[in-house]
Structure of Ig-like domain-containing protein:
Amino acid sequence: MPPPSVENISNVTLRVAVYPHLSLQLLISSNDSCVHLLCSMEDLTTELVNFTWSQEGQRSLLQFTSNGMNSELRLCNPDWSEGDTITCYARYSGTQTQRSIHLPANNASEKGQTETHLPVCVVLFGIFIISIVFILILFFIFKYKNVTSCNGPST
């Protein structure tokens, strides 16, 4: 005989709280001397966000574009340099949050250095090959001259 069973049924409701957060991304720019940043407020429902930007905590930067949840900033040389800290501030419902990013090395200067080194290497390699050919020609000329002087003049 099986023991009596008791059925307990309970419902559990799980609520997951999702808090808004700010993200800051360095985007690929079509111009190597410029940086393009995207600041986005994520997981915020139906509120407008007021974005502002600063560089090295000092001056206010003008945003390139802005809509309710995103703001873009584009800086071109000489307005930024390697290691600068750019900060995006987001204000909504009396709350302010911020994200910062350190700017990488200027890709334009690195690219320019690479492009300068390539032709120099090609020129040096060309001079090396020409020198080898010149040395071989001199070697054969002197060898032929020594062979003809040892055999005497031909008649």
